[in-house]
Amino acid sequence: MGKQLLLEHINTPGIDTLNVYRANGGYAALEKALKMKPEELVEEVKKSGLRGRGGAGFPTGMKWSFLAKPEGVPRHLVCNADESEPGTFKDRFLMQNKPHLLIEGMIVSSFALGAEVSYIYIRGELLYVFHILQRAIDEAYAAGLLGKNILGSGYSLDLHVHCGAGAYICGEETALIESLEGKRGNPRIKPPFPAISGVWNRPTVVNNVETIAAVVPIVNMGGDEYAKIGIGKSTGTKLISACGHINKPGVYEIDLGIPVEEFIYSEQYCGGIKNGKKLKAVVAGGSSVPILPADLILTTAKGEPRLMTYESMADGGFATGTMLGSGGFIVMDETASIVKNLWNFTRFYHHESCGQCSPCREGTGWMEKVLHRVLSGHGKPDDVDLLWDIQSKIDGKTICPLGDAASWPVASAIRHFRSEFEEYIKNPASIKDVKHYYTTNNLQPTA
Amino acid sequence: MSKEIKFSDETMKLVQTIIARYPEGRQKSALLPILHLAQMEFDGWLSAPTMDYVASILKIQPIEVYEVASFYSMFNLKPVGKCLIEVCRTGPCWLLGAEDIVRHIEKKLHIKDGETTADGMFTLKTVECLAACGSAPMMQIGETYHEHLTCDKVDTILNDYKSKGERTTHWDKKHIKAQ
Ligand SMILES: Cc1cc2nc3c(=O)[nH]c(=O)nc-3n(C[C@H](O)[C@H](O)[C@H](O)COP(=O)(O)O)c2cc1C
Ligand code: SF4
Ligand code: FES
């Protein structure tokens, strides 16, 4: 088992309460941070090499140093707790079990950024977690850890939880900002970036739950020490939420750099494939990243073991690699239908497209229809090429990355599993185990 | 059965607390949380008069409320049963049998996805990934996540809601007292 910087004490009874959290070393990072200068804290985060855990992996210290600081204009830190990327459930796990870790991270990070009012934007479906966070925030206020003059330092911070209401797109940071302003979650055209003009046109940093939580151990141990964990530019620990056809689904904290094979097969982590079946494919970083067949997820095209790092996952580019993404690790065994899973994901992106850009709004719908046609036994010989063509006309041509996220799964499934599509088209009888629930959708096959 | 659309004093206090979380003049930011409260208070859905009422509280145009309410999947723009069953239908849950769960509920309650039972007790709705893929298949009822579902487990859960017969909403009254 790797270092448990975030999940330490996660099973200690009462760790969700302030007393137990403090008795186990909680809020030590805050006490330390308040004695430092904000710039020094930003420096520690830079040294740590921490990269955004929300999916894009952008260096957090660098993001923080971009924050504009015009005289007299308040700036804000907003925590992205929208967690809606299929396969990802680490932030919920962390917030539900250790709410004070996120709150401590929010206070330390807000202090580093000079924010005096900060927000946690949580997806609306997690209202029960909203109440867990609210209770923890109330405790923190009562103990003088939030509010005016925190622990006598002269620094004051108000922290609020804001709930969304069901929309995957609100995880995209500019859509999240729109949503926080009480609007539809339509992503903004960038620039300006949130660091210059974010919520209410004020400079804003948006960071993922896990990113903000990681600031706590970084302050406690020092950036240099944190950077010793991991390999190269993938420093520290990462939460991986593992699901699908494995023996032990759940949230694991790994040292970045362990081999994928160890993660899938070791008893410490996923414990191997369920029911003694064979591994067929993995979607390693949430539904948006390219799917890889068993051989390429375990070993890179160069024949080296693939490691759980940003770089190794991406080795080979999109031709033979993928991305670490959000850490949503979806495992499929030999019985899984790649085409059907792809249809489900494509349906998801079509449903979640905000509709501002025609390639995304229309393209996702077309791909869903073509895939549905193939799955219902009416596929045409050139449908695979048609799908390829549609996805290539979305990728890179939209306001926000949801368009790319919808096209990559299609492109990678065709790249690595083309024969499965072709078999379904040539020989509809081979489409086994297609149950009929999804065909009740009003998408009738266009013969 | 037209009852007056007005928040209880208790809820109204919470509404004011929420509005105060945002800068002066930015009270529209409170729209999503307040729509959740409105759904809780007014039978689990947002009628046009309810949305107009929320607009008047936030001093914004009704259209600003309608366009937002219609964008987010958690806001119900038509009446729903007392118990809204939201079953996750996205990839990871589907891999582990979400489809069977939906079929089972449809058969058991004689309704299709999106419909309400004749007695007004249950509405079935399929939803997207609820960040519980590790305990798939799963469904949400009110604020509660029901995980590792089997058809038998679904029967027990639904029978339980039915025997209680109460309205279940995402934002529960019990949290108002706690605020
Ligand atoms: C469609 C879409 C959905 C996203 N969903 C999330 C999400 O649920 N949680 C999250 O932290 N980041 C999400 N992101 C990434 C955010 O835009 C942003 O990069 C992130 O919050 C930055 O935080 P980080 O640097 O700490 O990772 C999403 C991006 C896109 C394009
Ligand atoms: S890419 Fe899709 S989700 Fe993103 S802004 Fe365009 S239409 Fe909206
Ligand atoms: S796919 Fe159902 S909870 Fe994620």
Explain what you see.
- The complex is a heterodimer of chains A (447) and B (179).
- Chain A is of the alpha/beta class and 447 residues long.
- Chain A has 18 helices and eleven strands.
- Chain A has helices at residues 18-23, 28-34, 38-48, 60-65, 90-97, 99-113, 127-142, 173-180, 209-221, 223-227, 260-265, 294-298, 310-314, 317-320, 338-352, 358-375, 383-392, 402-426; strands at 76-81, 117-122, 158-163, 204-208, 230-231, 234-235, 237-244, 250-255, 279-283, 291-293, 328-333.
- Chain A has a five-stranded mixed beta sheet.
- In chain A, helix 15 (338-352) packs antiparallel against helix 18 (402-426).
- Mean pLDDT of chain A is 95; it is low at 436-447.
- Chain B folds into two domains: 9-77, NADH-quinone oxidoreductase subunit E (Arc Repressor Mutant, subunit A), CATH 1.10.10.1590; 83-164, Glutaredoxin (3-Layer(aba) Sandwich), CATH 3.40.30.10.
- Chain B is 43% helix and 10% strand.
- Chain B is built from eight helices and four strands.
- A four-stranded mixed beta sheet of chain B has the order 2-1-3-4, covered by helices on one side.
- In chain B, a hairpin with a 2-residue loop joins strand 3 and strand 4 (144-146).
- In chain B, helix 2 packs across helix 3 (48-58) and helix 3 (48-58) crosses helix 4.
- Chain B starts with 8 loop residues before the first helix and ends with a helix.
- At the A-B interface, helix 7, strand 3, strand 7, strand 11 and helix 15 of A face helix 2, helix 4, helix 5 and helix 6 of B.
- The structure holds flavin mononucleotide, iron/sulfur cluster and FE2/S2 (inorganic) cluster.
- Residues 88, 90-93, 129-133, 136, 138 of chain B line the site of FE2/S2 (inorganic) cluster.
